[in-house]
Design goal:
The complex is a heterodimer of chains A (159) and B (467). Chain A is an all-alpha fold and 159 residues long. Chain A has helices spanning 2-8, 20-41, 56-67, 98-107, 119-133, 152-156; strands at 75-76, 79-80. Chain A has two domains: 2-45, no CATH class; 50-133, Cytochrome c-like domain (Cytochrome Bc1 Complex, Chain D, domain 2), CATH 1.10.760. Chain A contains six helices and two strands, in the order αααββααα. Chain A has a two-stranded antiparallel sheet with strand order 1-2. In chain A, α3 (56-67) packs across α5 (119-133) and α4 (98-107) crosses α5. The longest helix of chain A has 22 residues, at 20-41. In chain B, α2 packs parallel to α13. The chains are: A mainly alpha (159), B mainly alpha (467). At the A-B interface, α1, α2, α3, β1 and β2 of A face α2, α5, α6, α7 and α8 of B.
Chain lengths: 159, 467
Amino acid sequence: MVAFNKVLDGSNGPSGFGVHRHRVVYFVLVGLFILQSGLTYTVSTEAASPAVELNDAAQRGEALYREFNCTACHQFYGLGGHMGPDLTNVTVAAGKGPDFARAVIFHGSGLMPNLAVSKEQADDLVAFLEAVAATGTYPIRSLDLTPWGTYEQMHSDAK
Amino acid sequence: MRSELTPAKGFVISGLLSLLCGALFGVIGSWQHVLPNFVDAIPFVKSRPLHVSLVIAWIFLTAVGGVYHYLPKIVGVPLHSTRLAWLHLAVFIGTGFAVIASYFLGRFGGREYWEFPPALGIPIALSWSLLIYNFFRTANKHKGPWPAYLWMWATGVVFFLITYAEANLYLFPHFTSNMVRELTVQWKAYGALTGSWNLLVYGTAMVVMERSTGNTAIARSKLAYLLFGLGFTNLLFGWAHHIYPVPSALWIRILAYAISMTEWIILARMIHQWRATMEDGKNGSSTLFGRFLFASEVWVFLNLGVALLISIPAINLFAHGTHVIVAHAMGSTIGINTTILFASVFFIGERAHSGPTRAGFWIFNGSLLAFWLCLLGAGIVKGWFTVMTDLPFQKITEKIWPFIAGFAVSGIGLFTGLSLLVWGALKVLLASNNKEEGDAHGTVELDAIPVENRCPSMPEKVMQHQR
């Protein structure tokens, strides 16, 4: 009980965030976080080429992609739902392409429902998918591993 | 004496109901992978966000309920304002219903993964500010250095708001006009948002352990602060292990890789301590909450192991975009978060539990293990065929079908276990003549807890796993 009270009134030695040193570490971390956020919002995610910036049609398509909740079933760069295929490169993949994508979006296919998308909306969605395809390649099929446990493409695709 | 309804209990009860509904939509969503027209009235585009938002609501409603419940006892003064806490709850529940209604009307946020029409984020943020205000006005009265869990909570409540605001940056075209930026910032925000509710949950685990064992030294030890610091660093800088394939600047991803690897220290520490606990023959399973705490340690161990492996880019190459990631997400939110929160709920309303509740514990954990293994299996098969072959998506889907069917079947078991537990918890929380933990005022009375009810588990094992 005595020991317990000692802990409560802080006379129990040097642990605890009351200690100046710990507070400094904490706020240095927060400062680095702010710096890292600033870089991530700007230079570190800069578009590599104009094709990567979304034009008006692609931006409308992006909003539609959210509105129809396509992400419930689809992924970009492996991020998103799992019921349907990854769409990063669908408009440039061998045997697929923009017209194929437009047809699937417009009519549905297999587990992909017909979402009653209009013709104009389907065009905007395809413009969006084309802009996404311009950002890079996914899935990655090369097995060039480095001694550091990374893979070559992670380094070469960096902007 | 009928136990009084407090805002804390209001949060926990809402959380339990939210879990039950969320799990039901989960069952519907999983079966829609197996039987395409299952429950036509709620198609997958709706069942998925209903499931995700409701189960996430369970996590933070119950974690917040725990903060409101334990904080005054820890500090030894009443909550700064009970009225504000009620207001917080009322706004949350109101907004929750609005979110559910918007999904049924086909209005989505349309991003991953805690998403709804952005206007509904405003009441959530405002009411969360009430929590922050109430928390600091109460916690500031704490005498002496803060134990690690108060720092975890303080960081958790503040970073929840910061990262939630960040998750809404997409409303500015600067962020959406470039998909690399949109994806990067989206996963930065959600990675850290998850980290911040994890801090609330792990802080709660420490509190339950402290209050049940009466050992107040652990949460004030150097090691506790060190592990908190490591976890906090992972929250701030580790998020980019989710986006190795996204072509953002290399340093973002390499930094995340390096930071993630510091978690091996935590894993090694856990194994070390675990062996010590096992040798002592103590596993804290004499009470229901003790069992839950012990189960959460097992889940931390399994999940941290998988998480560490998939944070290595060469392995991530195969696991990314597959059900291995789903297994990891389910293992953390169900295996770790939900198990800890049940420990807290059954600690708040502590008394003898009926057979069905105890059965619920085993059904829940057993089904979760099957569920988790099926997802891992599906993910490994999918990852292998995606990277090593050109097999089309449809063919890969056929190959993983048995695992997906197993996942959907074990999901029903999981739902059954959860229902029994929710039922048992509601009975305890609403019962009259409730012998509650809440009857002790202030930490000093910890000594009054009989030794046989104490849980000898070690808090630092579960406190750090910020994913």
